[in-house]
Amino acid sequence: MEVTTKRMSLVVGALGVLSFILGVIAENKKPASGTPITGKDVVICKYPADPTVMLGYLSFAFLVASTLAGGLSLFYPYKGKSIPWPALFQSTSFFVFFLISLGSTALAAVMLLLPTITEHKHLLSNVHYNLETTCPTAKTGLLGGGAFLALDAALFWLVSLMLADNAREDYFDDVMLAPPNMMPT
């Protein structure tokens, strides 16, 4: 089975969509707060069982997988022909979308991990010595925003892949048209 840009784009897109779906479900399943149970000089927060933490980490994992597939797809030697990476970055549009892909991936990772880790911390550290505590949970909206950014990042990786494919075609057209003594190195 030959690796093609179409197959790689399907992999990147599918992983990005999975990250999006899991992030949105995690946001929707997150409880608003826990139930405070007052004891002697402590408040123990009881949180309902929910899959938010697991779904948040899975969403992040699929974001990472989508990013790795997207990044590798840009530099993979399709049909046995590799292109030097500086030749790819000579294309301004490719360079801009590559940077946007990296930036949106980083922002999505932060927005997925921050509430997931915070929620995980709240579940593990549920004994409070402040009797006024309201049993908080992670900030609402960050997981959903991170999910949308994960989808955006996958789409930007797909645009980068299309632009890399165009730059690859231009590079090989120039190599074929150049006289033998003028071949790029």
UniProtKB/TrEMBL annotation:
List the membrane topology term(s): Multi-pass membrane protein
Give the InterPro entries listed for this entry: DEAL/Modifying_wall_lignin1/2 (IPR009606), DESIGUAL (IPR052222)
Record keyword Cell cycle present: no
Where in the cell? Endomembrane system
The signal peptide stretch is 1-26
Provide the alphabetized UniProt keywords.
Answer: Membrane, Signal, Transmembrane, Transmembrane helix
Cellular component, GO, one term: endomembrane system
One Pfam family here? DUF1218
Please tell me where this protein is predominantly located.
Answer: membrane
Record keywords: Transmembrane helix included? yes
Q: Where are the transmembrane segments?
A: 57-76, 88-114, 142-164
The family annotation for this protein states: Belongs to the DESIGUAL family.
Q: Under which name does UniProt file this protein?
A: Uncharacterized protein
**The organism of origin for this protein:** Deinandra increscens subsp. villosa
